[in-house]
Amino acid sequence: MFDFGKSLINMNPDEQKKMLDNATSGQRNMALEMGIGFNKPTWIKENLGKTEYYEQRAKDFEERNPDKKAPDYYREYGDKYVKRFDKLKPELSKEGQEWLEKTKDRLQFKMEAGLRSGEWDKSKPEELKEKAYDSHSEAYLEAGFTDLPQEDIDKIIKNVDRKSSEMKNEEYQIGPASIASAAPKATG
């Protein structure tokens, strides 16, 4: 009897792709469940919630796709701001410092969950960026942005580049400034 899954396991990636191109939807679902032939991102569980996460995510993409540049969100936004906010951390109150850690955890978990589930397509950098940006406001609010002291809110917002906090298109804004309106005491 032919075992589709075992056959895929023993094939190189090019052969897997050819076989999956002609597979039934049930066979493709089985391969997806097994993590075969879809070039899924590595689960970066050891760096979740850490400063190194975005750089590791970019390196993982480049290792799996040697002929492609990693989506710019990883280094030009995620890595840039996680490092910037790590430097800001000592200047914040205890509540602000806790907020930064909770936000880092939430943003990275949302990205990891989106990538691992296939809902966030890393092969389409603009779509990935939009989905990542869309997760920001929710992550900030879940971490307690509106409960922060005003001084912390002001410092956080001032650490976002003006071009990063303005509307990028009609559908989404990015950065803590994008939720300042949700914080009744925020001055933006």
Outline type: elongated
What structural class is derived from the secondary structure elements? mainly alpha
Q: Name the average pLDDT.
A: 79
Major sheet characteristics: none
* Count of alpha/pi helices: 9
Which ranges are low-confidence, i.e. pLDDT below 50, for 5 or more consecutive residues? Answer: 165-174, 181-188
Task: Please give the domain count.
Answer: 2
| Fraction of residues in β-strands | under 5%
Radius of gyration: 20 Å
Percent helix, as a range, is: 55-70%
How far do the termini sit from each other?
A: 66 Å
Work out the number of β strands: 0
Order of helix and strand elements from N to C terminus: HHHHHHHHH
Topology:
Blueprint: H1 4-9, H2 13-21, H3 25-34, H4 53-64, H5 72-88, H6 94-117, H7 125-142, H8 150-158, H9 162-165
Helix pairs in contact: 4-5, 6-7
How would you characterize this protein structure?
By secondary structure, the chain is mainly alpha-helical. It has two domains: 4-34, no CATH class; 45-182, no CATH class. The protein contains nine helices and no strands. The chain has helices spanning 4-9, 13-21, 25-34, 53-64, 72-88, 94-117, 125-142, 150-158, 162-165. Helix 4 runs antiparallel to helix 5 (72-88) and helix 6 runs antiparallel to helix 7 (125-142). 26% of the residues are buried.
